[in-house]
Every structure is written in C-alpha cells, then in structure tokens.
Amino acid sequence: MPERLRVLRTVPAFRRSIMAWRAGHANVALVPTMGALHAGHLALVRAAERRAQRTIVSIFVNPAQFAPEEDLARYPRTFDADVAVLRELGVDLVWAPPVEVMYPPGFSTKVVPSGPALVGLEDRLRPHFFSGVATVVAKLLIQCAPDFAMFGEKDYQQLKVVSRMAADLNLPTRIIAVPTVREKDGLALSSRNAYLSAEERAVASTLYRVLKACAERIANGELIARVIDEGGNAIENAGFMLDYLEARHADSLQPVASLDEGPVRLLVAARLGKTRLIDNLGA
Fold this sequence. Notes:
The protein folds into 2 domains: 173 residues, Rossmann fold, CATH 3.40.50.620; 92 residues, Pantoate--beta-alanine Ligase, Chain: A,domain 2. The protein is built from 10 helices and 9 strands. The termini are far apart. It is α/β, with parallel strands linked by helices and 283 residues long. Helix 6 packs across helix 7.
C-alpha cells in the first residue's frame, strides 16, 4: 500500500516538511502543474522520481497567466482524482496553495522576463503570459528550493523562459526538460484536449503530422521559408485558425533561415473550434 500522501496548503507547513527532508540529506524534485493531470504530467513525475529521493507535485491554477478573455473559469479542475493518481505513483507531497497564499493582499511584485520571453511567439499573442508564469515559477522554486524542477518540452518557449530565469537569478535548481508525451496519432497531450469535440479530436493530430513532415523536409535541405509557408497552408486547410508556424533556433528562439544557423525547432500554435493547441518538434 503506498505511503499516505500529504497535501499541504500553507507555506510554513510546506517549508517544515522540506527542512525535515533536508535534515535527512534527501534531495528534492518539483513537478509544477495546474492539475487536470494526464500521462504527460505523469511522465514528469516519473522523471522526478528517477532523480530525487523526495518528489513534490504542485497543483495551482495560476490566475496571473490568464488574460481576462481566457479560460481561467473553465480550466479543468480534477483535484481529488489528481491526488489519487499521485498517491499511487508514490509522490511524497502535493503543494496546493490557495490563491490568497500565493498572492496575498497587497501582493505587488512581478518577474518580467525578456530574452526567450520576447521573441514573437506566444508573447506576441499573449503578452501577459510569461510574466505570470515566471512569477509563479519563481515563487515555487523559492518556496521549496528543489534540486530539480521538471518541465515538459511541449510548452517549449515556456521551458526556455523558465530555464533562462533560473540561470539569471542564480536559483539553486536544475531545470530538467522532459520529452513531449503524445497520443498514438501524435497529438501532444494537454489538459485542454478535453475541450475538443469528437470531430475536432479527429482533426487535431494534423498539427503533429505537419510538423513532422516539415521537419523531414528541412532536414533534407529544402528551403525553410517555403516549407513553413506550405505547412501553414496545410494546417489552415485542415480547419485550424493558425496563430503561427515558425522555424526558430532551438536555444535562443530567434528566427532562422537555414540549418547552418544552428539547431532548428519548429513551433506551432493554432485554434480548432474554441480550443487552442500548441506543439513543437526539432528539425
């Protein structure tokens, strides 16, 4: 029978638990989530458990990263089911602070990242987003000072923003990238996939198929600009409203015109009905 999983909601209790682990010379891994856990999150948990003796999963739907017109109110919340799954996986602690703990009255400090946060991808369409992400992740890393924090490659720009922030602020945490987990047809796992209708779900894997085809063509020496243009047309012809399909340097996220400019990452965001999907793939 798995050990009883503790769910903590106050900073003092959270820090006491971590101090007790540190007194026993245990290292610690953190998996930050907003809940509604799926197999992608569970891959992060398993990666954390391979690296550390103690694993924390945070569950906090962060209002600071949602614009007023976005889906904060309807974002899926499955807390009891999430905790049950994490208990079976042997997670040691769930950090589930209420909003008033993370953002108490009078809260007035933000982390405002630049670098990979200002490259004209997600930041162009959601200018509020990375400040909200960087602020909450900075708080999480300060609250538990983990040895490792696990982030999925599915949110690739976010991964780069968090990695840059941790390095720039000398935070004593190693950011670990975990490969994207996909359905059998290639669709990247996301909590927002639950919004898709059956008809939309049948179309959604087009994003991955186009990314894969574009990556193969670029690797074979075709002109990046032509490949991206034709890939975008294919996505729109499948019924998506395309936000962007871009070829970027895999580290800096700056635009690239050829493979000679460095490792290439293809990044896409598109809307299918009311659901916005993102994905990425190395070329």
